[in-house]
User: Fold this.
Amino acid sequence: MPGLNPLTLAHTLMLREYLSKYPRENCDYTITNIISWGQIYDNHFLIYKERLVIFNPKYHYILFPLGEELSVLELRELVLSFRPYYPNAQIILFPRDYVERHPELEEHFVIDEDRDWADYIYSTQSMVELRGKKLAKKKNLISQFRRAYPEYKVMKITDDRLDVILKFTHKWRRERDAEGIYLMTEIKAIENTLNNWHKLPVEGIIICLNYKIVAYSIFSPQTHDMATVHFEKFDPEKKGSAQTVTWETARYLSGKYAWINREQDIGLAGLRQAKLSYLPDRLAPFLRSTLK
Assistant:
């Protein structure tokens, strides 16, 4: 398609400029996800009327453009420009407020919400304090971990620890005999993130016990007051390690970001229960469209 180019690490500055001016809450709009997952899905981009349009050719997804607001007719024109090359091209991630402000959308698009891909957003303070009866179990598990392993340490992810994280990730997968398309794709996304560590605006922490890793998390900025946690892995044999790494991550982000995006549950019942159990403040909806 004319004007459509591969999206690579060389475009990180362009992404930073657009995302800083036009931030979005959905985790698909982080530089880390755009690059790390985009290298798997072969993300492309084009500039359409000075707006940045990111395109996933595997699923024919057009991410809602970044830039000054386009009219409904301009969005229709954008989709139609893709159709000769990608017959199933559709816009995803419509902002809720755009849909509410443009009732004329229904003349050209059918908008539906995919609950499986909604992002969970939490107050950083609430994730640190864990107040209330519903979060008491989380707090107790953290206390148990801290009592059982008072010597545990929290360290930032640095160059000399990247290989350790990768080995821990593959060990985590092998011990669970875990397979599946999404899981294997996630492992590849973790590898991409670690391989591009210094070229992405990404950070992370490791929880260590007796010089061995028992958990880690990787996160990056979403907006000026929100961070997104992309990956968390932990040793299930260490009771409370899952809750402790989540809590320590929130403590690390406290004072820097008011909100934490913990991404989607992708329709997995166990993952949904786990994310809901932390009492999200809100969900960032995944709104997709079908052109009439």
